[in-house]
Specification:
single chain; Arc Repressor Mutant, subunit A; 2 domains; three-stranded antiparallel beta sheet; 34% helix; elongated; binds iron/sulfur cluster
């Protein structure tokens, strides 16, 4: 792996780990052990790719940049209470199937209680013909 890729991944990890607080650009390059020039170059490159937001902040009386990851860490909390986790129909549920995440009222309400739940097509009652 080229050295630069490893450095970029380490830099992006630092920004991601900083979360909502963000990380000062200077703290990033110091942690990486690179020069301020190289740190700035990395931050600008990440911003151009949309991976990082650079916000101008006043820190200790000097203007600098703080970096915020545009990638959000996935946590188990994001799927907490999802109805699919305990759904008895999960084996029959798939896109294009009779039961689908696209027309599931329980899933729709879980995603956003303000959404109108989709109309579920009524099942035709199965009628058995009596034997004669
Ligand atoms: S989308 Fe609805 S039917 Fe499908 S697994 Fe989730 S809760 Fe069950």
């Amino acid at each position: 792996m080229p050295k630069n890729n490893k450095l970029e991944r380490m830099a992006l990890s630092l920004v991601l780990e900083a979360g909502e607080e963000g990380i000062l650009q200077s703290d990033m390059w110091k942690s990486l052990g690179v020069t301020s020039r190289e740190g700035s170059r990395l931050a600008i490159k990440f911003e151009e790719k949309g991976a990082v937001e650079r916000r101008k902040v006043l820190h200790n009386g000097r203007w600098t940049y703080k970096l915020f990851s545009q990638t959000k860490a996935v946590t188990i909390a994001s799927i907490q209470n999802c109805p699919c986790m305990i759904c008895q129909d999960i084996d029959k549920c798939f896109t294009g199937g009779e039961i689908s995440p696209l027309n599931c009222p329980r899933l729709t309400i879980w995603i956003d209680p303000n959404l109108e739940p989709p109309e579920v097509p009524m099942e035709e009652p199965s009628v058995e013909e009596p034997e004669s």
